[in-house]
């Protein structure tokens, strides 16, 4: 049996998946270069809504599978962040505001008429993964948050520079999420490193993060392809 990676080696292996994150997808590259149409932006926002809507369920699944009350209490904050404490609040409320800022009626997001088959398949697969795998494996999959703050900062800059038709109040989700995700990423990384102590667990965690990168990439594949038909 192979020896476990040291904490430093394990951390480096997780961070080493940075190249698989979706910021390097051709769709995002075009968006950040100012080459996206309003239809491209709206299609991304409408499809990403489906992902956003499932995040609280994903986090609830991780809690349901975790036997440690301290971890459950800490992870519960993620559900509150996305769902808010009442309707129209939290990340979901901010995403509806983003939809309005790019010209999407709230009804269009809520009834999911624009959600592509590829997006639905990828997100449903991720949710099933988190419901059926050990909690620490699902937590490792969530470590795409290691890579997202810089990407969200770049998105805000690119959208303000290239897409002045997007109403400024639509940026609220990203502005609130950046500091929160940095804190979450640090906590989750420490959690995964502490609990994945065997080589098998470590390799499973690395594979889980790779899987999550593929989920995000598959969403963009569908969104990108739909714009080329």
Summary of the model, kept short:
Helix 3 runs parallel beside helix 7 (117-132).
Number of helices: 11
Instruction: Let me know the average pLDDT.
Output: 95
CATH topology: Heme Oxygenase, Chain A
Helix and strand content put the structural class at mainly alpha
- Under CATH at level 1, the class stands as Mainly Alpha
Number of domains: 1
Give helix and strand order, one letter per element, not per position.
HHHHHHHHHHH
Please state the second-level CATH architecture.
Up-down Bundle
The CATH superfamily is Heme oxygenase-like
Pfam families: TENA_THI-4
Function: Ring cyclization and eight-electron oxidation of 3a-(2-amino-2-carboxyethyl)-4,5-dioxo-4,5,6,7,8,9-hexahydroquinoline-7,9-dicarboxylic-acid to PQQ.
Enzyme class: oxidoreductase
EC number: 1.3.3.11
